[in-house]
Amino acid sequence: MFQELLSMPVVASEHGQDVDNFIIYIHWLMLALFIGWTSYYLYALFRFRESKNKKADYVGSRTQFTSWLELLVAGVEAILLLGFAIPLWAKVVESLPPADQSTEVRVMAQQFGWNFMHPGADGTFGKQQFELVSEDNKFGRDLEDPFGKDDIFTLNEIHIPVDKPVIFHISSLDVIHSFKIIALRICQDAVPGMSIPSWCIPNKTGRYQINCAQLCGNGHSAMTSGFLSIDSTEDYDSWLVQNTPADGEGGGMSFE
Fold first, then answer.
1. d(Cα 95, Cα 137) in Å, to the nearest integer?
2. Which end of the chain is more exposed for a tag (fewer CB within 10 A), N or C?
3. How far apart are CA 197 and CA 214, in angstroms?
4. Averaged over 141-161, what is the pLDDT?
């Protein structure tokens, strides 16, 4: 019920509910602090009103209650950090699922849109090298590698199957962007010259918006034009067949 009151976005990944629960716990703490400190403020206004306190008291508080209260609040915050936030973070970043049991997608951000590369029917990406990156070869593909001949390139559109781990390998062509899919509860900076992995297990089919969470230039708002489709296994296999290139070309996408 509290989740509905907060109008939380739809959750489409297994770890997403843990993220939402953590947010809800923080809101409960904020609500308790708001009620507590507001009550104390009103009490202080009444207790130390001018009509009952003609002479100022320079001694100050004679109780340790507020000190113990502050320690209690710090303790609750420590529990949230050590008991929820850090374990959740460690669960996601400690290790990646096996690549041969996952769907992998290469993400290349640029001003102002998203380039994506999916492995073709063989499930294997072709070789890549950063020194090969150019306007016509955004992913730095080794064009002679036979494993890359069936790789699929899309602009502002990702397709992944449901109930299977997905690993996003995130990079950028120009400035720092941030790859954010609210429904999956993932957000990872895209840094030029680096390939940073981020993963989750999608568990709800549908079409979800991709956002850039880093101000990346005058056209930053255009970075919301990307979409993620979580498909059933059958629909994903069909999409692969329909979009596998016949000539091994693709990747010359641009945003003019």
1. 30
2. C
3. 17
4. 88
